[in-house]
Amino acid sequence: MARTITMEVLRYRPEQDAEPVLQTYELPFTDDMSVLQALLHIKDELDETLSFRWSCRMAICGSCGMMINGKPALSCKTFLRDLYPGPVRVEALNHFPIERDLVVVMEDFIDKLERIQPYIIPKAPRTLAQGEYLQTPAELEKYEQFSSCINCLLCYAACPQYGLNPDFVGPGALALLHRYNADSRDGGAAQRMELVAAEEGVFNCTAVGYCSEVCPKHVDPANAVNQNKTTAARDYFLSFLMPKGGKK
Ligand code: SF4
Ligand code: FES
């Protein structure tokens, strides 16, 4: 007999739901089915009104993050066989307002991304005739891991401090900030460190570490935050020893 699995999906349709409600679906189960495929089956065959984000289906675009059985995860990278016999509960990512069903409002994160200046700020103007920047493998290694972030927001849904204080810049944006500050081609570290040391910066972090645990790309944002705590504390003490403006 064909196997089935029960999915409990948090629905929120602002035009009809005063608050989010769980809706249950029974669907065919196969060993190779991801949670995203299950949601696509629901949308194609059972309920076309269900809304969720997805694109690449291969853990690259970062758009399919959601709470799966209470944990932040990519739905395309989570397989029903690991959750069988279910039921499997799927909800919008924690700590973000729900726009509709499993789709969250991302504006807060986009604003934070803009604030960290996620691009190389050259140390000095450089002409094309000067050729490309060269980097040693050791210089690449300093930031490579932190450049793998796919902006999936799982670390924000895992972060209890972001849940308590949405002003906290948060793990993903701070990991990306660190990616640029650690790049030998970049000269913007002093500007970004102002945000690192600000009220909404790294010292909000209480070192829970769940952000790194849920990260699907092994970025280890907790490590980036810790390194920046050390740098911000060092800068603070150095500011007493060095004349104003003498800081590198
Ligand atoms: S650090 Fe990891 S969990 Fe956080 S947004 Fe980037 S890829 Fe996602
Ligand atoms: S669909 Fe792109 S990361 Fe899941």
From TrEMBL:
<dbReference type="Pfam" id="PF13237">
    <property type="entry name" value="Fer4_10"/>
</dbReference>
<protein>
    <recommendedName>
        <fullName>Succinate dehydrogenase iron-sulfur subunit</fullName>
        <ecNumber>1.3.5.1</ecNumber>
    </recommendedName>
</protein>
<dbReference type="InterPro" id="IPR004489">
    <property type="entry name" value="Succ_DH/fum_Rdtase_Fe-S"/>
</dbReference>
<dbReference type="GO" id="GO:0046872">
    <property type="term" value="F:metal ion binding"/>
</dbReference>
<keyword id="KW-0004">4Fe-4S</keyword>
<dbReference type="GO" id="GO:0008177">
    <property type="term" value="F:succinate dehydrogenase (quinone) activity"/>
</dbReference>
<feature type="domain" description="2Fe-2S ferredoxin-type">
    <location>
        <begin position="8"/>
        <end position="96"/>
    </location>
</feature>
<keyword id="KW-0560">Oxidoreductase</keyword>
<dbReference type="InterPro" id="IPR017896">
    <property type="entry name" value="4Fe4S_Fe-S-bd"/>
</dbReference>
<keyword id="KW-0003">3Fe-4S</keyword>
<dbReference type="GO" id="GO:0009055">
    <property type="term" value="F:electron transfer activity"/>
</dbReference>
<comment type="pathway">
    <text>Carbohydrate metabolism; tricarboxylic acid cycle; fumarate from succinate (bacterial route): step 1/1.</text>
</comment>
<dbReference type="GO" id="GO:0006099">
    <property type="term" value="P:tricarboxylic acid cycle"/>
</dbReference>
<dbReference type="Pfam" id="PF13085">
    <property type="entry name" value="Fer2_3"/>
</dbReference>
<dbReference type="InterPro" id="IPR012675">
    <property type="entry name" value="Beta-grasp_dom_sf"/>
</dbReference>
<dbReference type="InterPro" id="IPR009051">
    <property type="entry name" value="Helical_ferredxn"/>
</dbReference>
<keyword id="KW-0479">Metal-binding</keyword>
<dbReference type="InterPro" id="IPR017900">
    <property type="entry name" value="4Fe4S_Fe_S_CS"/>
</dbReference>
<comment type="subunit">
    <text>Part of an enzyme complex containing three subunits: a flavoprotein (frdA), an iron-sulfur protein (frdB), and diheme cytochrome b (frdC).</text>
</comment>
<dbReference type="InterPro" id="IPR001041">
    <property type="entry name" value="2Fe-2S_ferredoxin-type"/>
</dbReference>
<dbReference type="InterPro" id="IPR006058">
    <property type="entry name" value="2Fe2S_fd_BS"/>
</dbReference>
<comment type="similarity">
    <text>Belongs to the succinate dehydrogenase/fumarate reductase iron-sulfur protein family.</text>
</comment>
<dbReference type="GO" id="GO:0051538">
    <property type="term" value="F:3 iron, 4 sulfur cluster binding"/>
</dbReference>
<keyword id="KW-0411">Iron-sulfur</keyword>
<dbReference type="GO" id="GO:0051537">
    <property type="term" value="F:2 iron, 2 sulfur cluster binding"/>
</dbReference>
<dbReference type="InterPro" id="IPR036010">
    <property type="entry name" value="2Fe-2S_ferredoxin-like_sf"/>
</dbReference>
<dbReference type="GO" id="GO:0051539">
    <property type="term" value="F:4 iron, 4 sulfur cluster binding"/>
</dbReference>
<dbReference type="InterPro" id="IPR025192">
    <property type="entry name" value="Succ_DH/fum_Rdtase_N"/>
</dbReference>
<feature type="domain" description="4Fe-4S ferredoxin-type">
    <location>
        <begin position="139"/>
        <end position="169"/>
    </location>
</feature>
<keyword id="KW-0001">2Fe-2S</keyword>
<dbReference type="GO" id="GO:0022904">
    <property type="term" value="P:respiratory electron transport chain"/>
</dbReference>
<keyword id="KW-0408">Iron</keyword>
<dbReference type="InterPro" id="IPR050573">
    <property type="entry name" value="SDH/FRD_Iron-Sulfur"/>
</dbReference>
<keyword id="KW-0816">Tricarboxylic acid cycle</keyword>
